[in-house]
Design goal:
DNA-binding, elongated, homodimer, mainly alpha, disordered N terminus, 63% helix
DNA sequence: CCGGTTCAGTACCGATCGGTACTGAAAAGA
DNA sequence: TCTTTTCAGTACCGATCGGTACTGAACCGG
């Protein structure tokens, strides 16, 4: 029973790693992976380069940690939407969440999963690919949920779950781009509502 | 009558500026403004740094020239769509053109106007803003066209041209993101068709 | 052929990139 | 108090960033 997981020998860390990660997330969110430099990041985190490397490994791992935090925080609407009772409610919750997260007054405009690294040089390839996978995963989850809706009779028997999921994901991605360009929450909510008129689109 | 605009004294340029600009466009398209380095650009253009600076000024002006070329070339579907006879035909031509341009087999996936600079550091600010304006301009043109359609009775009297334009532009931006993530032309054409079912969305 | 002009290329500029070795202090256990 | 461990900070690494001075050669009109 050596349950003593605490009391690590040596000098304890002098900063809150969670708080520092949150600050890094905001910088990546605003400037993207390649646009955010170590100088920006460490300045915002309030720590030195050395402390960052000791705590998080390197810039790429820091970004991945920030992406995880983003997924469980600002982007948690994605998982939450899947629990809605009907396909329309799922799609609606997903798009509404997208609108709210991309237009938060206390965070950068847009979506980290989109503007984090949409196009990049060779150096940013791994993160670019990670974000492609991140977006694809969300689309797959939506498709699975819509497939269940077809099975349950909530969607017409002829409906194509993958096509519907791709459509919803496309609108969400478009909302992210619009938000990055300065579109307001009200304007984007109108877009989300418009996208869901006459649901399901046959 | 000093009409002699040709015959510039001195050694003539040893490369085709249009061809070089086309190559630069492809690099910016693939890697984005900040992701594309002078080394990448000049290597693809087949000229040296000096020649590039002499011919185009600097990196930012080179990008603006490339964006102009993109607008008049691969993205010319935007202006062309406006000449369609009905609002539905306009929206359809716009989205179909978006799908084709973002999934050309002979060019990078996605849209230069989106992935050229969606998020960036301080250095890329001017180009970021230029692309926001570029996308906004397209949306405004669409809204004007839809307003005309309302006046002509082609769209219902109660329709909101700006809202419809924003919706179409959002879907087009989403298509660009999807294409950047590897979506196929067929998949995105399905998305475009889905977005236009039951047009106009009241 | 010659003088003038503009080309292309090398070599380099200061600044910044991500990442690290080294120093010295702070805190825990003994 | 002493030893050990890990902290934080300075200073620096080679590489690359965008941009430029300088060198010669190539081409023009005369």
């Amino acid at each position: 029973m050596t349950g003593a997981k605490k009391a690590p020998v040596g000098r304890p860390r002098g900063f809150d790693a969670d708080e520092a990660l949150e600050r890094a997330l905001l910088v990546f969110w605003e400037k993207g992976y390649e646009g955010a430099g170590l100088a920006d990041l460490t300045a915002a985190m309030g720590i030195t380069r050395t402390s960052m490397y000791a705590a998080f490994g390197n810039k790429e791992q820091l970004f991945r940690r920030a992406l995880d935090r983003y997924t469980e925080g600002p982007a948690s609407y994605g998982e939450l939407a899947l629990t809605e009772p009907t396909a329309l409610a799922v799609a609606s919750a997903f798009l509404n969440g997208s609108v709210r997260t991309t237009t938060r007054p206390d965070a950068p405009a847009g979506c980290l999963g989109v503007q984090g690294s949409l196009a990049s040089g060779e150096a940013g390839r791994p993160i670019h690919d990670a974000l492609v996978e991140w977006r694809t995963a969300a689309e797959v989850r939506l498709a699975e949920r819509f497939r269940r809706a077809v099975d349950e009779g909530d969607l017409p028997a002829g409906a194509d779950p993958r096509r519907l999921a791709r459509y919803i994901m496309t609108v969400a991605n478009g909302i992210a781009v619009q938000a990055a360009g300065g579109a307001s929450r009200g304007e984007l909510q109108e877009v989300a509502d418009t996208a869901l008129r006459n649901w399901p689109p046959v």
